[in-house]
Task: structure prediction
Amino acid sequence: MTLLAPAVATRPEIPKARGEVSLQVRNRLLGSGSARLPRVADITHCAPYGEDLHLALHLCYELHHQSFEGVPDTLEWDPGLLRVRALLERRFEGALRHDCRHHPNVDESLADLLMEPVDGTGVSRFLMSSGELWHLREYVALRSVHQLREADPHVWVIPRLRGRAKAAMAAVEYDEYGCGRVERMHSQLYADLMTDLGLDPSYGHYVDVAGADLLATSNLMSMFGLHQRLRGALVGHFAALETSSPPAASRIAAALRRTGAGPAAERYYEEHVEADSVHEQLVRRDVIGGLLDDEPFLAPDVAFGIAAHCLLEDRLGARVLHAWSRGESALRVPLRQP
Result:
């Protein structure tokens, strides 16, 4: 019998601020405190991968997703907030462009993703070989920031595509949304996984404990998805996700079986081993192929999207493994034991 997590009728509470910039954005959303919004100088002084910037950017982007409890829907297109969001994006994208400036072309980037080194390292390999249940719970809580809205930012690219690329992207996303069955939606499967692990499956529940490195991976998808000019980067990002997912999912599924996490926990990752193997072929052949047949000048953007995804995932993985190697929590606040 399929396990469905309890429905949550309310929106998530707005996360706590992590600096002056996110505090001012938060105050605007809640209609409290000073009406002042961050200025150019405030954002220029923010670290491009830092806590304050990425929490502020998350607050802006969430208005286009499910928003927050007590925040009016009219603020989604508030001119002041959109101005601040553009400044935050410029700071973030500028750092990404600089740090990914030596990325290879599309074919080389995809070939690199398909390589599985025998002596490779990473979070999924750690979890498979020696991860304990508390490591898995932390990893799942972190990833829930995006996985409970899985596929949503990528859907925004569909109206921006044409022909073969549009049809193939829609086919992949239809599968992500459970082919019309709510219990098979990947976001629902993730909520079931969280329930098996004794975690709260409420949307947005773990944003406050997720650090900037995780928020950056989520913000990247929304930034790419919300901009027509970044449609090529979004396609590259999606290709990187689908290509790298099956091997990592297989390792995490093995870790979940070894630790006795439960059948719903295993099902999410087992689903991705099979589904994403099919998706990877479709995305490479028809989404990227169709896009570049129509708009070959977008090839550098596709490669940039792949490189940006890999850069941020490497940063996140390094921080998580550094904490775990010291026997410490990778979260801003450790989880309670179930």
Q: What stands out?
A: Residues 246 and 274 are 7 Å apart (CA to CA).
